[in-house]
């Protein structure tokens, strides 16, 4: 499957692959949900394939894929039983060390192997430092593809040892086409909300459609434009979120509120921008805390609504 916006990345990869010396470290940088993982797997299969050596259609012995492990032993047991399980927040140093032990052997089928770390910017510090040693002295025939949703979180020493492939945000028009194809059940309102919240990430937009954000998006826009002196709109917003929204829906609501604020910045007078920037910063803070804090969902929705309602006054012209 060809993903929108991958053309330049493929061109750069194929030029390197056909060159005299392939670089051993690559960073795939871009928004979560733009298809970097799919690119990494397809690129890795091209890398390890050799003429005259049959390649398995499924899991490949010379492609190692590292991601978040189960959160604890209980979750690991659920995984082993084929049940849904929770992931740890970070990729652990033990995973990197186990990988390095495996890299002491030769590739199984050919002369090359690929290591995919997804996402590399979620490695704990000790894991990143351990990986750095392999990037400094890579085992023969080993190539690293590091997926990064936020490249700035990678160690500068890791970035300096890798080539970067950038995966751009997808335009709203292309996003709408993706949603029409992948989520045909979504209404126009739902697609608009998902596109606003996803900020150029088709994968995120598809996820947001599943979270039913259309009504929430409309209510957020109304709060920003009208204010909410009697708390009626915030009450409706809480109702649209539901009594027990999932963590994913809470995170999506924060992202959607950020998108609503960013959209307002494009049309307001310059003097009103500082208030918008302050509100956006508060929403960024909430987004950073939400994955690990146990927020009361109702209070979180009210805090989001109050931040948005506070912008209504800043939108009023100073001369009335």
- Give the N-to-C terminal Cα separation: 55 Å
Work out the helicity level: 40-55%
Second-tier CATH architecture of the largest domain: 3-Layer(aba) Sandwich
Q: Uncertain runs with pLDDT below 50, 5 residues or more?
A: 316-320
What is CATH's topology name of the largest domain?
A: Rossmann fold
Describe the structure.
- The chain starts with 6 loop residues before the first helix and ends in a 6-residue tail after the last helix.
- The model is unreliable at 316-320 (pLDDT under 50).
- With 320 residues, it is of the alpha/beta class.
- It contains 14 helices and 5 strands.
- The longest helix is centred in the C-terminal third of the chain and has 19 residues, at 247-265.
- Strand 3 (113-117), helix 5 (125-136) and strand 4 form a beta-alpha-beta unit.
- The protein has 2 domains: 7-167, Rossmann fold, CATH 3.40.50; 211-314.
Characteristic terms for this protein:
single chain, 320 residues, alpha/beta, Rossmann fold, 2 domains, five-stranded parallel beta sheet, 14 helices, disordered C terminus, DNA polymerase III subunit delta
